[in-house]
Prior knowledge:
By secondary structure, chain A is α/β, with parallel strands linked by helices. Chain A has helices at 9-14, 30-45, 60-65, 92-98; strands at 2-3, 20-25, 50-55, 73-78, 81-87.
Amino acid sequence: MKNVTTDSFQSDVLEADKPILVDFWAEWCGPCRAVGPILEQIDGETEKLDVVKVNVDENPDLAMRYGITSIPAMKVFVGGEVKKELIGAKPKAALEADLAAFL
Amino acid sequence: MHDVIIIGSGPAGYTAAIYAARANLAPVVLASSVEAGGDLMTTTEVDNFPGFPEGVMGPDLMFNMQQQAERFGADVRLDDVTELELDGPVKRVHVGGEVLEARTVIFATGSAYRRLGLPGEDRLSGHGVSWCATCDGFFFKGKHLVVVGGGDSAMEEATFLTKFAESVTIVHRSETFRASAAMLDRAKADPKISFLTNAAVVDVLGESAVDGVLLRDTVTGEERTLPIDGLFVAIGSDPRTHLVHGKLDLTTEGTIAVDGRSSRTNVPGVFAAGDVIDPTYRQAITAAGSGTVAALDAQHYLAELPAAVSA
């Protein structure tokens, strides 16, 4: 999964030509590390949606811009707008159900 | 067919795995995909687990337990159990599309964080309401926070949050605390932490993010608003039994009923251990001890099985 930064967020996420799931995460967040591999699987299994990661430790301004106060926080951007928000680590089946409209 | 399937991967599950593996029972541990390691994965220093004079980080302790179980042949899988068939000599454990069969099952699923059950809580979850200080404290630099609860986890969360927050108020319904003296004293000594006792959170306020809580004095009934930026909920947890409802007997406290000091449930070949059977102590070390009991009980049960089933 691609690591997106403050500098690349505009082109990688806001101007992307397909839905982008942004996983806001940090090294010190246990549930983030647990859900990371599941998001990677989902990314590998669909062409409709790309999954990217934002490290909130390294990009605190992005976390602030999107009002992140709990991680893992997963937001689906379509055409530059947040269309879906998920909070907390969940099993793959539950994530797929939540993201069904984009998969 | 497996001899032992262990469901859960906290101190009870991994300790059961260590004992079962050392008894050559090649246990399969269904550790869950996102909660492997259990509650200690979101804690910081654990200072009351024997053998670590300088303390140990919760995630490190759980990783060590996992490695210790794997060293003796435990098969730890990051899978979620979706359904159980426990009747009869062969237990069937559904893991997504796959069905695993075993002669014994050790159920060690621990407990799930209790929610306040307030309207604002769900709406503002992830927008200032949190259950994980180690995950989310970072986002509250210089902010004013409330931690609800009176146990060790509330004290630990409050103490951890002072690394980031300007102030932390511990709001607790009564004047007496379940927390250990060591944890309570540490919180009381912290200049950033203050206490509001005899106070209940009756609503979480804010449109798109938390901007306050409505408190009710549990003695006078008087209500008032406390402006804050974030709320951390640490009001305890409930035994995680949804997979066995209607299949195993529960106690009036909601834990799985076991026979005396053993781990035997009312279904032969099904054992339970850890917080899911313990309404009282709920410590990492008591859960670990309970996991030992379950592994030894399972071992004994297997040894007594008629040859037809054990073949």
